[in-house]
Write a structure and sequence with these properties.
The protein is built from 5 helices and 3 strands, in the order H-H-E-H-E-E-H-H. With 112 residues, the protein is α+β, with helices and mostly antiparallel strands. Strands 1-3-2 form a 3-stranded antiparallel beta sheet. Strand 2 (74-79) and strand 3 (82-87) form a beta hairpin.
């Protein structure tokens, strides 16, 4: 029998003051990651990792989440056993004004 977990699961996030524009742009350059960002931008709240509509495997999507998190674009946290994702909209806007809105707008215009 496994012993009970004594500490909650946590996910490390960078301080956006330490994230460079290059890191953010590289994270947002990938079309799958832009799909994730657009889906989060349209979501009413946090989205679980398994709720995204993407053409890649779960393991590949996990990699994309990590790149977005390490670039400061998304925040992840656990609710029970589910890992939830949200955009760091307010923080990104303060660090890189207009970037997130421009990327989401351009990505959605490409789909139309």
């Amino acid at each position: 029998m496994a012993r009970p977990r004594t500490t909650p699961r946590t996910v490390e996030h960078p301080d956006l003051a330490e994230v460079t524009l290059q890191q953010a742009l590289e994270a947002l350059a990938d079309p799958i990651r832009r799909m994730v960002v657009c889906q989060l931008a349209r979501a009413d709240g946090d989205k679980g990792c398994g709720t995204f509509d993407t053409p890649v495997s779960d393991s590949t999507l996990t990699h994309h989440f990590a790149v977005l998190r390490e670039a400061g674009v998304i925040r992840q946290h656990y609710q029970g056993t589910t890992k939830l994702n949200s955009l760091r909209t307010v923080e990104l806007e303060a660090r890189f004004p207009g970037l997130l809105h421009a990327v989401v707008s351009a990505a959605e215009a490409e789909v139309r």
